[in-house]
Backbone:
């Protein structure tokens, strides 16, 4: 959708819109990002569109071959294995560093966010809102480890897998499963069950990955 004349899209809003398009399958792997089309859509200058594309390249969700148009990234099975192995490693480490017992106020805030996410997911809210609430839940959870650099790395690799996460991320069965797994994570934190929490944060990543593998013949 084109923005109103005189209300040019900002770089951040263009990046956010394109990333949402990738996450929810409106832009599919290998699909070309045509600069002129994006300029018209966002009422933006070419250099702003190019900066937005480069930001997506930096997040590893778009590729820009030399002398060719940018395209939404797809992955080889090996790349998927490596990305998810890295995510598992980082997320387990965050759980290992997390001080137990978890601060009561922080746990209460996380439960409130979980309830907001569950209400949005079960109530048919906008998919982008559901996605953002899900990411906020995990960001707040991992932030409890107290290592800002580790949390940034977790966020980076989570964003890098957005084209993979797009497979089934709005599926009702997956959302119901995700709500249950979030609740189990909170229970594990409350009971100080570190091993269970570490397993949960890794298992939680798998449904969309498995869907990607089944569609790509990589299972």
Residues:
């Amino acid at each position: 959708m084109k923005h109103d004349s005189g209300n040019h899209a900002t770089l951040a809003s263009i990046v956010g819109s394109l990333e949402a398009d990738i996450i929810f399958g409106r832009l599919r792997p290998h699909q070309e990002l045509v600069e002129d089309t994006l300029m018209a859509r966002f009422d933006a200058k070419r250099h702003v569109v190019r900066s937005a594309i480069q930001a997506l390249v930096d997040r590893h969700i778009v590729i820009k071959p030399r002398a060719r148009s940018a395209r939404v990234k797809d992955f080889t099975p090996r790349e998927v294995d490596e990305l998810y192995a890295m995510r598992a490693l980082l997320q387990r480490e965050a759980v290992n560093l997390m001080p137990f017992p978890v601060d009561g106020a922080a746990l209460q805030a996380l439960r409130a966010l979980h309830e907001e996410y569950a209400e949005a997911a079960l109530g048919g809210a906008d998919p982008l809102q559901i996605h953002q609430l899900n990411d906020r839940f995990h960001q707040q959870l991992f932030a409890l480890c107290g290592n800002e650099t580790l949390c940034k790395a977790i966020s980076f690799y989570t964003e890098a897998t957005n084209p993979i996460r797009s497979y089934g991320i709005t599926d009702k069965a997956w959302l119901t499963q995700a709500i249950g797994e979030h609740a189990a994570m909170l229970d594990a934190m409350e009971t100080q069950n570190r091993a269970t929490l570490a397993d949960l944060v890794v298992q939680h990543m798998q449904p969309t990955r498995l869907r990607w593998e089944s569609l790509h013949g990589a299972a």
User: Anything to note?
Assistant: DSSP finds eleven helices and three strands in the chain. The longest helix spans residues 77-97. The domain at 11-72 is CATH 1.10.10.10 (Arc Repressor Mutant, subunit A).
